[in-house]
Amino acid sequence: MESGGFFIAIEGIDGSGKTTHSKKLVRWLNKHGVKSIYTKEPTNGDIGRILRSLARKKSVDPRVEALLFAADRLEHLNKVIQPYIKKEYVVISDRYVYSSLAYQTVTTSDPEWVKEINKFALKPDLTILLDLEPRIGLSRVKRNRTRFEEESFLEKVRREYLRLAEIDGLKIVDASRSIGEVFQEIVREVAKYLKNKVI
Ligand code: TMP
Known about the structure:
Radius of gyration: 16 Å
Bound molecules: thymidine-5'-phosphate
CATH superfamily: P-loop containing nucleotide triphosphate hydrolases
Number of domains: 1
Number of helices: 8
Largest sheet: 5 strands, parallel
């Protein structure tokens, strides 16, 4: 089947199932003859590695961190996202610019600045927000928690995500249900957008 490049971002708080569903979606698309790749932020590149180590530090200047997330995103866009879109892949990114617009708005309290430093970010064709109560999300996070994984912080991030969804038309999916139910809804949404190209 012919697909044409398409860019989908999967967003949500920690423990909302982004990685599980992004990978399932890539498998589903490839099975249906649509060339698709999984990618994520923070990336596994040099800047992504710095970000992962900073997440375990107690105090980091939130603006330094916001700039690093933006820098990692620009590399991601240049080295992975755009080249694969050009090769007509469906690119599925596990977190992208709305992660910064939500998390870094909370950490810096400066939404306009966060938007400004991310203004290069190519808008995805579709952004899916896996919405979930932080209490439930955190109960699914098994490893040692990072600075970002505190309930009161994630409450604020969730509110910010929902506000952005309203303004920018993100597709909200209730992630409190079973993996099968959530995935079915994701597939329905994606199929709607890809209909003209693939089905
Ligand atoms: P991960 O657990 O999805 O790999 O992401 C690591 C953490 O980084 C997660 O707690 C959210 C945070 N994060 C931001 O604060 N801003 C961003 O732009 C991105 C991509 C992630």
